[in-house]
């Protein structure tokens, strides 16, 4: 991951990390605009007064983690202030995440797709050499955030926790197929999805998950991910070992 951040200047990456432009790419690759959450508004400065029904989500198109759920007027006021700070500078320079600095600064608003006050479960598909290998499941976002990693047969491969394993989403196979289609031509991509009443919904494409700084436990999983990435690079001929039980 650090090598990609420092050396990979693939000109395709900024557009695919841009939360506005990537929706066009997804519609083209997957053959339907229904995969992506619609954009209610896009621009450079969030209006002072809400123009959409609550709740909705405010994001920057050029950053990572720039997401605010707006449920009432006070949230909108806070989002106006925060979004102005997002727009003051490019994202990513502090962690050498080159591609974010190449994305046009901007904001967008989307409808909220969670239920009640809960954010939807995030299913992040790790695709190496065009093949989906793992699904990182993020639970409790905005509350007690935690994540677990499964293989594509829904067997846990990350370290055990006290939490019971979440059920396999009904749309898992659709997510895996879509992730592989979106990742064609790249050695590694993480494609994020939600499951909305059994229907897969695209979230975003990520090329620097966790900026390569998240701890992967157990270490053998970290090793296997690195080997799978290496195997997807041109000129790599060594077989990739299986993850031991």
Which helices and strands occur, and which strands form pairs?
Blueprint: H1 2-7, H2 13-17, H3 21-30, E1 41-43, E2 56-60, E3 67-70, H4 73-87, E4 107-111, E5 122-128, E6 131-139, E7 146-151, H5 172-182, E8 188-196, E9 199-206, H6 219-231
Antiparallel strand pairs: 1-4, 2-3, 2-4, 5-6, 5-8, 6-7, 8-9
Describe what this molecule looks like in 3D:
This protein has helices at 2-7, 13-17, 21-30, 73-87, 172-182, 219-231, and strands at residues 41-43, 56-60, 67-70, 107-111, 122-128, 131-139, 146-151, 188-196, 199-206. The chain is globular, with a radius of gyration of 18 Å. It is α+β, with helices and mostly antiparallel strands. Strand 5 and strand 6 (131-139) form a beta hairpin. It has a five-stranded antiparallel β-sheet. It has a four-stranded antiparallel β-sheet with strand order 1-4-2-3, covered by helices on one side. The mean pLDDT is 92.
What sort of overall outline do the alpha carbons produce when their principal axes are compared?
A: globular
Radius of gyration: 18 Å
Report the structural category: alpha+beta
Uncertain segments:
none
Strand order of the largest sheet: 7-6-5-8-9
| Strand residues, percent | 15-25%
Gross CATH architecture of the largest domain: 2-Layer Sandwich
- Which sheet architecture does the biggest sheet show? 5 strands, antiparallel
Share in helix: 10-25%
Number of strands: 9
CATH topology of the largest domain: D-amino Acid Aminotransferase, Chain A, domain 1
């Amino acid at each position: 991951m650090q090598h990609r951040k420092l050396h990979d200047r693939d000109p395709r990456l900024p557009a695919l990390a841009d939360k506005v432009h990537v929706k066009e790419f997804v519609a083209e690759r997957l053959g339907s605009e229904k995969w992506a959450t619609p954009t209610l508004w896009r621009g450079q400065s969030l209006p002072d007064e809400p123009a959409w029904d609550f709740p909705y989500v405010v994001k920057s198109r050029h950053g990572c983690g720039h997401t605010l759920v707006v449920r009432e007027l006070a949230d909108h006021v806070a989002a106006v202030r925060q979004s102005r700070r997002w727009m003051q500078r490019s994202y990513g320079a502090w962690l050498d995440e080159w591609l974010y600095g190449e994305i046009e600064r901007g904001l967008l608003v989307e409808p909220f797709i969670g239920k009640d006050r809960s954010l939807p479960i995030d299913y992040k598909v790790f695709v190496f050499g065009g093949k989906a290998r793992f699904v990182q499941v993020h639970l409790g976002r905005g509350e007690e955030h935690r994540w677990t990693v499964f293989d594509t047969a829904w067997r846990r491969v990350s370290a055990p926790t006290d939490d019971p394993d979440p059920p396999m989403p009904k749309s898992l196979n659709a997510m895996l197929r879509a992730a592989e289609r979106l990742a064609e031509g790249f050695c590694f991509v993480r494609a994020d999805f939600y499951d909305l009443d059994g229907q897969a919904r695209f979230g975003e494409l990520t090329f620097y998950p966790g900026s390569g700084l998240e701890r992967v436990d157990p270490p053998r999983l970290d090793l296997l991910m690195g080997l799978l990435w290496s195997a997807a690079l041109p000129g790599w001929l060594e077989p990739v070992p299986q993850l031991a039980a």
